[in-house]
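A common beginner's mistake is to predict each chain separately and then try to dock the pieces by hand. The better habit, illustrated here, is to supply every component at once so that their relative placement is modeled jointly.
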Amino acid sequence: MTSLLSPMVLSFGLGMIAARLRSDLKFPDSLYTSLTIYLMVAIGMKGGYKLSVTPLPEIIVPLLAAIALSAVIPLWCYWLSRRVGKFDRYNAAALAAHYGSVSAVTFSAALAFQDTLNISHEGFMPGLLAIMEIPAILIAIGLTRMSRSNGESESVVPLREILKELLVGKGSVLLVGFLAIGFVSGHHGWEQVSPLFDMPFKGVLTLFLLEAGLVAGRKISDLKQRGFFLIAFGILMPIAHAALGIWLGKLAGLSQGGAAILGILAASASYIAAPAACRVALPEANPSYYLTSSLAVTFPFNLAIGIPLYHYMASVIF
Amino acid sequence: MTSLLSPMVLSFGLGMIAARLRSDLKFPDSLYTSLTIYLMVAIGMKGGYKLSVTPLPEIIVPLLAAIALSAVIPLWCYWLSRRVGKFDRYNAAALAAHYGSVSAVTFSAALAFQDTLNISHEGFMPGLLAIMEIPAILIAIGLTRMSRSNGESESVVPLREILKELLVGKGSVLLVGFLAIGFVSGHHGWEQVSPLFDMPFKGVLTLFLLEAGLVAGRKISDLKQRGFFLIAFGILMPIAHAALGIWLGKLAGLSQGGAAILGILAASASYIAAPAACRVALPEANPSYYLTSSLAVTFPFNLAIGIPLYHYMASVIF
Amino acid sequence: MTSLLSPMVLSFGLGMIAARLRSDLKFPDSLYTSLTIYLMVAIGMKGGYKLSVTPLPEIIVPLLAAIALSAVIPLWCYWLSRRVGKFDRYNAAALAAHYGSVSAVTFSAALAFQDTLNISHEGFMPGLLAIMEIPAILIAIGLTRMSRSNGESESVVPLREILKELLVGKGSVLLVGFLAIGFVSGHHGWEQVSPLFDMPFKGVLTLFLLEAGLVAGRKISDLKQRGFFLIAFGILMPIAHAALGIWLGKLAGLSQGGAAILGILAASASYIAAPAACRVALPEANPSYYLTSSLAVTFPFNLAIGIPLYHYMASVIF
Amino acid sequence: MQLSKLKLVTIIADDSLRHLLEEHITELGAKGYTVSHVEGKGKTGSRDSAWSGENVKIETIVPDVVCDRIISKIANQFFPSYAVIVYISDVEVLRSTHFR
Amino acid sequence: MQLSKLKLVTIIADDSLRHLLEEHITELGAKGYTVSHVEGKGKTGSRDSAWSGENVKIETIVPDVVCDRIISKIANQFFPSYAVIVYISDVEVLRSTHFR
Amino acid sequence: MQLSKLKLVTIIADDSLRHLLEEHITELGAKGYTVSHVEGKGKTGSRDSAWSGENVKIETIVPDVVCDRIISKIANQFFPSYAVIVYISDVEVLRSTHFR
Ligand SMILES: Nc1ncnc2c1ncn2[C@@H]1O[C@H](COP(=O)(O)O)[C@@H](O)[C@H]1O
Ligand SMILES: Nc1ncnc2c1ncn2[C@@H]1O[C@H](COP(=O)(O)O)[C@@H](O)[C@H]1O
Ligand SMILES: Nc1ncnc2c1ncn2[C@@H]1O[C@H](COP(=O)(O)O)[C@@H](O)[C@H]1O
Ligand code: NA
Ligand code: NA
Ligand code: NA
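With all components supplied together, the output reads:
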C-alpha cells in the first residue's frame, strides 16, 4: 500500500493521466537521456561501494543463475508469441528479446522499495542487471535468423556486429564501469559523490517515472491491435518469471532481498537496450507491439503491483 | 535589503548585465525547460506535503478570491491598454492575459523570500497559483473575439479548444498533479524526495533567474517602442494588484504570509502559459509588447522591489 | 595514489576506454553545456563566499603574477611550436593560445583534490582563473597577425572585436559574476545555495569527467599526425609551467595551497575559451593539433599525475 | 533505378501550430512528413528560444495534387493571422509508391 | 561567380543507421555531409522521442555519378528491411571542386 | 494560387560565424532566414559536438539579385579562411512580397 502511494508510483500515474488528457507536458529528449545516465551511474556506483565495504559474497553461482534466466526466458517467450500470439517471427523475436532482457528503471524502483522498507540485498546486484541485459537479445535475434527461409533478403547487420555493439552499449559501460569505480574508490570515494548519486536518487527517479508515464500513456492506444494477447502476456509472463527468478536466487544462495531483486529482474522487460537493438537488427518488427507491451503493460504492472507482489512471493518461498 | 542581495536577485541582475554586454552566455533550451519542470514539481510537491501534515485550513473562500482576482484584473488591464496605451484589441488582450495570469517563478522567489525570513503561509498556495493561471487568459481572448467586427477573418482556433489546452497545459498538470502527490504520499513521501525537491530549490532558482535575466536583458531594447506606457503599466499595475490581492486575502481569512503571497500572485505577470496561449490564439499581437513588459519590466520589479514591498504592504494592511 | 583512485579520475578513464571501444555512450550536448555552467557558477560562488568570510588577503601581487604568467607562456609556446614542432604560424599560435590560457575543469579537479586532503588556498583563486583565461589568447592571435606577410588575405574579425567577445565570454561572465555574487551575498547567501553548488560538486565533476574522457578518447587517434611532438609538448610544458607558477606564487605571497593552484592553472591548457576563439580568429589552424594535445594529452596528464605532482613540487619549493 | 518527380513542400511555422499542421497535411493526403526544430527571424521578429517561441520546419514529399491542396489550405487558413511560410521544390524519389 | 550544378541527396533514416550510412556515402565518393536530428511520421508510425527512436536527415552534395551510386546502394541494402527514404534535388554551388 | 520562383540559399558554417552571417544576409537584402543546428563532416574534419564546435545551417529565400549579392559576399569574405559551404536551389513560394 505504501508502495502504491509513493511519489515514484504516483508520478508515473500522473504521467499516464497527462498523456491520456493530451497534455503538452513533454520532457526534452536530452533531459530523458541525462536522467538515464544518472540512474545507471548511481546504481553502479552504489553497488560497487557496497561491495567494497562488505565481505565479498559468493558471486559466481548467482551470476550463472542470472545468465541461465536470460538464456531460457526468450525461448518460451518466442514460442508463445508465435503459437498463441500468432506473431510472425520478427515480432515474436522482438518480444522475446524484450522480456528476456531487463529494465534498469524497474530495478531502480525495486531499490527504492527495499530502501524504504529496510530490506537489504547483495551489492553485486547491479552486476546481475548488467549481465542480464544482453544474452536474451542475442538469442532472440539468433532465433529469427535460424528460422529464416533461404531465399529471403536479410538485414545488413551481422550478429557479431550486434554483439559487439551491445557489449559496449551505454547500459553495460555505465553499469559495469561504475560498479568497478565504486568498488575501487571505496568508502572514501562514495562519500565524495553520494550527495549527488545517493541522496537525490528517489527524487530523480520520480522525475524519470513522470516521463515514463507520459510515454506509456501515449502508447496505450496502440493496444487496440492484439491488445488482449499483449496484456495477458505482459502481466502473466512477469509473474512466472519472477517466481522462477526468486526460486533460482534461493538455490543460488542469495539472501531473501537479493532473490526478490533477481525475481524482479527476470520479471522486468527492457525498454532501452532491447528496442535499440531491435530497431537495427529486427527492423521488420513493429514497435507498437514490443514497445507497447514492455512500456505500457509490464512496466506499470511491475511498478505498482509486481514489486510488492514479488516480495511477498519471496517471503513465501524463503 | 537582504532580499536585494540574495544570490537569486543578484543572479538575475548578472544575467541582465551579461545580455546588455552581448555575452555569448546562453542556456540550452532543454536546460530552461528542465528547470521549469523542476520548479513546478518542487512547488507542487512541497505544497501538497504541507497540506498533509497541517490541519486542512479553510480553502474555499481563498480559492474564490483567487478566481475573482484573475477574472477582474484582465478587464481593467484591457481597458487601460486600449484607452491609455492606444493599443489595438489584439495587443490589449495579450497584455490583459499576461497581467491577469500568474508567474510560477515570481511565486518561487516569494517562497524563497518567506523561507529566509521564516514567514509562513498556507500549504495550498500552489493550488491558488495553478487556479490563477488560466481564467485571465480565457477572458482576455474572449474580449477580443467579442469586440471583433463581423467581416474580419479570424484565427483557426476555437475558444473551447484553447480552454482544453490550458487545462491540460504543463503548468496546471504539474502543479495540481504534484500537489495531489505530495498530499497523498505525505511525510513519508516527502522525506524520500526532499533531497531533490527541497534542499537545492534556491540554488536551482538562482540558475533559472540567471537565464531569466539573460532573456530580460535582451528584451529591454524592445522597449524603445511605447516604452513609457509599458514601463508605467508594468510597475503601477502590479502594485495596485498586490494591494487588492492582499486585502482580498485578508478578507478571505488567509494568514498575513498567505495574503502577501496572494498579493504577489495578483501582481505577477505570466510568461509561460500566457505567451504560449497568445501565440496560438492571438497571433496578431506583437510579442515585443506583451513579453517585454511582462519579462523585462514587471518581473525584475517584482523580484527586486515588489516582493519586499508587498510584504511591507501586508504588514500595514494586517 | 588516493587521487588516482578517486571517482573523478576513474570516471575520466572509463570515458576514455568507452570511446576507444566505440561505445555509443554519448552525453547530449545540452547536458555538457549545463554541467559547464554549473561548474563555473559553483567555483565562482564558493570563491566569493570564502572571500566574504575571511579577511581580504593581499590580491594585487598574485593577480599581477597570474597576468605575467599568461603573457609569457604563449611566447615560448609559439616559438617552440614553430621551431621544434615545425608548425605553421596559425597552428603555432593556436597551441600558444591553448597552453597560455587555463582550464576550469582542471581547476575544479584541483579544488576537489585539496578539499579531500584538507589543503587550503586563498578564496580569490577563481578570480585568477578568470583573469588568466584571456591574455594568452589575445597575445597568440596578435603574434600571427604581426608575422603575416603583406599580401595575404586575412580573416574577417579584427582583434578588438575578439577582445570584446572574450571579455564577455561565458567563462569570464560566470566566474567574475558569481565571485561578486558570492562575495556580496556572503554567508547567508551561501547557506541558501550550497546544497546545490557545494555538496554535489564532486559528483557533478565525476559526470563531467566521464564526458571529457569520452571526447578525449575519440581524439586520441588524431595523435597519429605529429603525435610525438604533441605528446612531449603536452606533458613537458605543463610541468615547466607548473614549476614557474608555484615559484611565482610563492614570491607573490600566496600560501602553499594557493601557489600549487597557481601552478596548476599555469600548467593547464584551455579547451573552452581558446578553441572557441581559434575557430573564429584562427580558422586556418587545425583542431586536430590544438584540441587533441590540450584535451587528449595535457588534460589527462594533469588530472591523473600533474595535480599530485605539482603539490609535491610545491612542498619542495615551500 | 526508376526515379519519379514529386513535390517537396516545406512549411515553417510556430511550434504551437505543429500538431494542427500535421493533422491538416495528413488529412489532405500526405503519407508522411519530417519535422525539424529551427530558429528564425522574419517580419514578425526573432523566434529563437523557448521564451519567445520556436519554429518548426515540416517537410513533406507529395504528388502535385496533394501539394496544391496543402498550399491552398495553408494560404486560406493560416496566412491571414499566422506567421507561416511555405515553399515548394522539385525532388526525385525512388519508390514513388511510398508517397502516394 | 562560377556556379556548377550538383545533386543534393537527402536520406532520412533511423538514428541507429547513422554511422552505417555515413560510412557508405563516404566510401561511395561523397566528400562531406551534413546531419540533422529530425522527427517524423510515415508508414512505420511516429518516430519522435528517444523512446521510440528518432530519425536523422543526412544531406550530401555530390556529382551525378556519386549520386547514382548512393541511391542504388541504399535501394539495395536498406529498402528491403529498413524505413529509409531518399530524395534528390538539383543545387548550384560555388567551388565545385570542394565536392568532387 | 499564384506561385513565384525565388532562390533558396543555404549556408553551412561554424556556429561561431552565425551572427556575422545573419548580419550580412540581412544587410544584403534578405527579409528573413531560418537556422538549424546541424552536425557535419567535410574536408576540415568532423564537427559534431560542443567540444569540436558545431555547424549551423542558415536558409534564406530571396530574389535572384539578393542571392547573387549573398554568394559573392561569402565567396569573398569567408571562403579564403573559413570552412563554409553555400548552395542554391529553386523554390516556389506563395506571397512573394513577403520575401522582397
Ligand atoms: N526569407 C526567408 N527565408 C527563410 N526563412 C524565412 C524567411 N522569412 C521568414 N522565414 C521564416 O519564417 C518565420 C516566420 O516569418 P515571418 O512571418 O516573416 O516572421 C521566421 O521566423 C523564419 O523562420
Ligand atoms: N512523404 C514523406 N515526406 C517527408 N518525409 C517522410 C515521408 N514519408 C516518410 N518520411 C520520413 O521517413 C521516415 C520513415 O518513413 P516510413 O518508412 O514511411 O515510416 C518517417 O519517420 C519520416 O521522417
Ligand atoms: N559534400 C557535402 N555535402 C553536404 N555538406 C557538406 C559537404 N561538404 C561539407 N559539408 C558541410 O560543410 C561543413 C564544412 O565543410 P568542410 O569545409 O569540407 O570541412 C561540414 O562540416 C559539413 O557540415
Ligand atoms: Na526479464
Ligand atoms: Na497577475
Ligand atoms: Na596554462
